[in-house]
Amino acid sequence: xxxxxxxxxxxxxxxxxxxxxxxxxxxxxxxxxxxxxxxxxxxxxxxxxxxxxxxxxxxxxxxxxxxxxxxxxxxxxxxxxxxxxxxxxxxxxxxxxxxxxxxxxxxxxxxxxxxxxxxxxxxxxxxxxxxxxxxxxxxxxxxxxxxx
Amino acid sequence: xxxxxxxxxxxxxxxxxxxxxxxxxxxxxxxxxxxxxxxxxxxxxxxxxxxxxxxxxxxxxxxxxxxxxxxxxxxxxxxxxxxxxxxxxxxxxxxxxxxxxxxxxxxxxxxxxxxxxxxxxxxxxxxxxxxxxxxxxxxxxxxxxxxxxxxxxxxxxx
Lengths: 148, 158
Known about the structure:
The structure holds 2 protein chains of 2 kinds.
Chain A: H1 4-13, H2 23-31, H3 35-47, E1 51-58, E2 66-72, H4 79-87, E3 92-98, E4 104-110, H5 113-127, E5 132-134, E6 138-142
Antiparallel strand pairs in A: 2-4, 2-5, 3-4
Helix pairs in contact in A: 2-3
Chain B: H1 5-14, H2 24-32, H3 36-48, E1 52-59, E2 68-74, H4 81-89, E3 94-99, E4 111-117, H5 120-134, E5 141-152
Antiparallel strand pairs in B: 2-4, 2-5, 3-4
Helix pairs in contact in B: 1-2, 2-3
């Protein structure tokens, strides 16, 4: 289980990590633990898959890629088949079932913005269902930080 | 900003994570033929320019006990969008807040927010509190809890 040191690490290092020649030592100093302990705890939390990764969170659009949120309305009896077909696309980053008539929601991340439309067309082709494309128009907040 | 080839190889090298060792940037540099100092300068610049939104821990919220995840969508009159988006985005339990296009007639909602919590009731309580504190009583909204998660991975860059 996670103890108070793990929680302090998670809460602090979601907010940033030093970019310097001794970053782990610097971060460890702030947390009041040794560099070796910080590294070991990060390794363990990664291993237990409590952390997705320890590294950068990129802005896909600024990297020149395409990104969009897409939704589909799939009848229950076809849901499994369509989920498999959609997830088979490497451009589908994550996919959630949600409780609405539009019941399948996935994020599409492509190498170029123009690829979004063509991947959507391919998905419609393969599945036989319409895809509602809802790209971001304006960003009011991205925190994605979780207190533990 | 146009990324150079050197930036691109750096972006690709660290996308899966930083090395867990005393001098991670030196190690990254060794792998792509760059001095430690150059790696540090380039990463700093990528952060300044917003290409790296954040560096550090990226959590798996589900595994941390945030098992209830709701996409709360709002049908906000266009002229009030900036105001409402700004208010919603500053609420501490809102982790993402974006304007997206309506898809009429099926989908009238234009403001999307994500709210995570340890169970559904808590998320619903957060939403009630937000409606009150932001004065959103007159704005139609819908709560879409997630059911199964089929796939979760970050985007990949070449």
